[in-house]
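I wish you would study the pair of lines that follows with an eye to the fold:

===
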Amino acid sequence: MPHTRPALPYLLGYPEHLRQQVQQLLDDGTLGDWLAERYPEAHAVRNDSALYDYVQDLKARHLRTAPPLAKVAYAARLQVVQQALGTHTKVSRVQGGKLKAKREIRVASLFKEAPAEFLKMIVVHELAHLKEPDHDKAFYQLCCHMARDYHQLEFDTRVWLTWRDAAGKAAPEQGEPAGG
């Protein structure tokens, strides 16, 4: 029996009535227009250097006491199908007899072409992991502290990913471990 992909895979955790509304816009061919009207603003964060500055600015405003970041970069190989839109890692290395931990954030490169609010959502999500490792109440409270409309942005980002898939936009390459 062939494996069929579930309808609206990015929205599986949401109520049926919301999935039906998205499916209707998709069927009508108006989902892209709805997204463009709701999120018309692109961002200028197109390379790793600009992304590093963008993340550092958000971190300085909201998480001054969080551990420093050694690296921030776009990653072409994050597996969106496994829900990894970004990753946060803590790399430990021995340097001069001491164990040094360096933290890194990687953001799926498809966010280079995402609306500005969606880039902010994924960056806020990964920054929150600097303080809160689990997706629990404290984690989401921190996300909402950094972006008041975090939950709406997360939903709309998932709607945007659904639209991209339906429109046949290129998915990122597979191969890098999932996280997020």
Remarks:
- The helical segments are 16-28, 31-38, 48-62, 116-131, 137-146, 150-167.
- Residues 171-180 have pLDDT under 50 and may be disordered.
- The first helix runs from residue 16 to 28.
